[in-house]
Amino acid sequence: MKIKLFSLIAIALVSLFLGGCNRIPPSEFVTVESNQTLFVIPLNGENKEAQTKFDSADYVKFQKIGVREWKKRFYKYTDGSIGDMISGGIWRPSDRIIIVNRTPVNLSFKVDDIANPKKDNDALWFESSDSVGFSTGFDVSARIEESDTPTYLYYYQEKDLVNTVKQEVKNRISAVAQDFDSKLPLDVLRTKKVEMMDAVRADVISYFKSRGVTITTIGQSGGMVYENKDIQMKIDSVFIAQQAKEVAKAELAAQADINARTKSETGQTKENAITIAQGTAEAERLKANAIAQGNFLKQKADADGLLLVRETEAKGIRLVNEALKEATSSGAYLANKELDVKLEWNKHWSGNFPSSITAVGDKEVGAMNLFLGVGNNIVPVPTK
User: Fold this and answer.
1) CA distance to 51, 251, 281, 355, per residue, from 374 (Å)
2) What's the alpha-carbon Rg for the chain, to the nearest Å?
3) Is 339 left (phi over 0), alpha (psi -120 to 50) or beta?
4) Cα torsion at 185, 186, 188, 193 (round to 10°)?
5) What is the pLDDT of residue 140?
6) How many CB atoms lie within 10 A of CB 209?
7) Nearest-angstrom CA–CA distance, 364 and 358
């Protein structure tokens, strides 16, 4: 009896202890970084089925929480067992916390070990229409836009973006590129890299954008790596031979260009010499013409000046003669000349009369019509 009572008391004390400790729900917080987006999906009630699957992207969109710190919510759960009855049940999360990491990723899918190409698990392998196996590399950059996080979560749940690109994006690139490569032989494919990349971009970028993944870059990395190493060796030998041929052609063309340039330069030198000689001759001719023209102009100017002088002198003589002729016919002129004679007479007359008078012609010599002796000079005296 005492043992049973003691057991009941112990159970009561444990129940009180556990119930008291379990009365307050846990206090847990979730921190959300700037490159993350938080979603809180209710786990009880009508949303119980959403624990593993979402009905649509729109449903997920309404579960996005725009906070940087979130306090988890809990509810009391009991299964009706004695332990739950004693403890009062256990605390369970009321919500499913999902954080989508939007950090951009950059991945390469290519052969890194050329000596052992098949050991690169990330490499993509293709086959041409003539059954030649080869690999060509791809570089991919991707991110999740904030507005696309509900869509991404609907399609990929909590899968990290790195894994999505490694699996989903890689497989899509492989499928599209193989579809393109399988239609053409290897020799043609080697010239169709741009067209192949255009086909891959057009499909992959649009396909994953509809699923919440933004492909920012997708491009070919490196050249073709062949399963059969002999193929590469043959391609290399053909390429080397082609390059040698092209080098020889280039050297021949260069020599021909040098010869043509030398010939052109020689011809140009001759033309330049002829042009210089012609220019020199023309310059001498123009110089001689200029000198001759200058001499001619000088002689003409001298002649014109002399002619002008002679014309002026002739004109002056003519004017003098005309004036003299006009004057001799004038009584005033004769009277004036007579006064000049008288003046000259008065200057040289000594006051003595001549010892003889000579008649002049048959005219009567008057008192004033005398030849006066002045020393050894005879001064004619005009008739009054």
Assistant:
1) 174, 124, 81, 12
2) 68
3) alpha
4) 120
5) 96
6) 14
7) 10
> Do 134 and 215 share a structural domain?
yes
Contacts for 358 with CB less than 8 Å, ≥ 6 apart? 365, 371
Identify the domain containing residue 140 by its residue range. 105-227
Supply the DSSP symbol for 104. -
Do 113 and 88 share a domain, yes or no?
no
Q: Domain count of the chain? A: 4
DSSP calls for 14-25: HHHHHHHHTSSP
For residue 67, the SS3 value is coil
Q: Report which of 20, 24, 26, 18 is spatially closest to residue 83, judged by C-alpha positions.
A: 18
Total count of residues recorded for the chain: 384
Identify the residue whose tokens are 């894994």. Answer: 163
Structure tokens at 379: 């001064």
Give the orientation angle of helix 229-328 with respect to helix 331-348, to 10 degrees: 80
Check whether residue 276 and residue 348 sit in a common domain.
Answer: no
- What lies within 8 Å, CB to CB, of 374 at 6+ separation is 348, 349, 350
Side chain identity, residue 329: S
The owner of tokens 């260009």 is 257
In whole angstroms, give the CA distance from residue 138 to residue 377.
145
Question: For position 216, which CATH number holds?
Answer: 3.30.479.30
With a CB cutoff of 8 Å and minimum separation 6, the contacts of 166 are 107, 122
Cα separation, 290 vs 220, in Å, equals 78
- Model pTM? 0.51
- Could you tell me the strand order of the sheet in which 95-101 lies? 64-65, 36-42, 95-101
> Which is nearest to 54 in space by CA: 20, 96, 26, 5?
96
**pLDDT greater than 80 at residue 214:** yes
Structure tokens at 104: 């951009």
Residue 11 has pLDDT above 60, yes or no: no
Pinpoint the alpha helices (H) of the chain. 2-21, 57-61, 82-87, 149-156, 161-164, 170-181, 186-189, 193-209, 229-328, 331-348
pLDDT, tens digit, 9 for 90 and up, residues 24-43? 777 777 777 877 788 777 87
